[in-house]
Amino acid sequence: MREKILVFDTTLRDGEQSPGASLNVQEKVEIARQLEKLGVDIIEAGFPASSPLQLEAVQRICDGSKSVIAALARAVENDISAAWKALSPAGRPRIHTFISTSDIHILGKFGSDRYGTNLREKRQNVLRMAVDAVKFAKTFTPDVEFSAEDAGRTEPGYLAEIIAAVIEAGAKTVNIPDTTGYTWPSEFGGKIARLIADVPNIGDAVVSVHCHNDLGLAVANSLSAVENGARQIECTVNGIGERAGNASLEEIVMALKVRADLHHFQTGIVTEEIYNTSRMVSAFTGIIIQPNKAVVGDNAFAHESGIHQDGMLKSRETYEVMTPQSVGVPETSIVLGRHSGKHGLQARLLALGYKLGDQELETVYRRFVDIADKKKEVYDDDLRVLMGDELGRPGGTYELDYMHINSGTASIPTATVRIREENQLYEESATGDGPVDACFRAIERALGIESMVSTYTVRSTTAGRQALGEALVRIRDGNISFNGRGVSTDIIEASAKAYLQALGQRRLHNQNTLSETTDNGV
Ligand code: KIV
Ligand code: ZN
């Protein structure tokens, strides 16, 4: 009998903290549904105290969920109450509370004298706050997880002391994050082994790890931790996350599966759902998967050199340690076109992991027909990007009603746009350095705002000159960034839509008031 390793997916929380990623509520719900299909054990759905939209997203994900749903909370009562409010519709809720435990974090975050006047006092206060937080969380649910932030750099004796205390207070999972991605595999494995040896009540909790990838070691560190006693791994789809990201779910799962000859572990992941999940996350977050990315990159199963191709034709095992089918890479891409009906589209979307209601299907079908009219063949990746574009439109935002561009080698680029905002129409023209610049300036004039684009990228979603273009725009307003995504066979139109979406996100954000931050360590 193999021992089960629990897969705790934090794509919707730590993954969403990736620079440039921002998911709206509907997109998070779709990803959560797909994560359930993938078979993850725990879905970390968000950090409810950080904004009303995060709270709403967690609530919506909980609704009808079968997996354990976790919500993050700092070790303060307000955060824990917000997490519980968000989790209340869940069948299997988990409160995940955390506090920093390394000296470097403690001195940096708890500098004020009210946490103690020296390191020893501050450590004692942090321990007390951790225990109080776990006890408070336990008043709502028996399933409480505690994380010692920056455990990778925490003094081992103190780490053991705080972990023993939170287990005593009722934590059922104790998570050991390598928050800065600093540790080395044998070192991290050793830390886990030592912790298990030093904490007398460790048997009352599941030991979990959460590794960041700053040195490219997140997966290796996680596997080393498993070899040394960890039984839950926290990870993200495509390895997205803060800075260089988190341990990648697909790499951990496939490493455990392919090298099952080396150990006695297994996960509950339906590996054939990996590819669809990976593509969905990429399409919704706008974070492109590098072609040579292990398991899910475009080149993961491509064989370029003649010698390799020859070997592959004779026997796949010559150069492949797993089959594309085992991770759900389709053998052929089914192509839809303008003659494909609504049912054909619905069936294809379902196969890709998107389950639409009648109304949603109607809207997506209209967009599909429009695209199929312009480009003969509509590929799976086109559909994924189209879904990302559709779900990326929260209600009440700006819509591009009309656009006209005049551009050429011998003329000044000029754009006219008409924008719809509920029942209002705004129309303006402008010139610019190029057609996109002219278009953005016309939008700014029409809406009466200043230019604020900080990042702008365009890419094609599939190969060929008829490919759909996807534009990503980020705008900054003070310290906050807002992202927009637009899709069209015309990249100027895609760019205008992306800019309008980012502006719409900013407007929605300004309508929602951010919850107050505290100085307890985040
Ligand atoms: O990296 C980290 O330490 C975290 C914790 C909040 C679990 O994300
Ligand atoms: Zn993290």
Description:
With 522 residues, the protein is of the alpha/beta class. Helix 1 packs antiparallel against helix 10 and helix 10 crosses helix 14. The protein has 16 helices and 16 strands. Strands 2-3-4-5-6-7-8-9 form an eight-stranded parallel β-barrel, surrounded by eight helices. The chain has a three-stranded antiparallel beta sheet with strand order 11-12-13. The two termini are 42 Å apart. It folds into three domains: 283 residues, TIM Barrel, CATH 3.20.20; 56 residues; 121 residues, Double Stranded RNA Binding Domain. The site of zinc ion has 6 residues, from loops.
Question: Would you summarize the structure shown here?
Answer:
The protein is α/β, with parallel strands linked by helices.
What's the number of structural domains? 3
> At the third CATH level, what is the topology name of the largest domain?
TIM Barrel
- Beta-strand content estimate: 15-25%
Largest sheet: 8 strands, parallel, barrel
The CATH architecture category of the largest domain equals Alpha-Beta Barrel
Bound compounds: 3-methyl-2-oxobutanoic acid, zinc ion
Shape: globular
Q: What is the CATH homologous superfamily assignment of the largest domain?
A: Aldolase class I
Helicity, in percent? Answer: 25-40%
Structural class: alpha/beta
Number of helices: 16
User: How many individual β-strands?
Assistant: 16
Physical arrangement of strands within the biggest beta sheet: 2-3-4-5-6-7-8-9
Query: In angstroms, what separates the terminal alpha carbons?
Result: 42 Å
Radius of gyration: 25 Å
Mean pLDDT over the full residue set: 91
| Unreliable runs | 513-522
CATH class wording of the largest domain: Alpha Beta
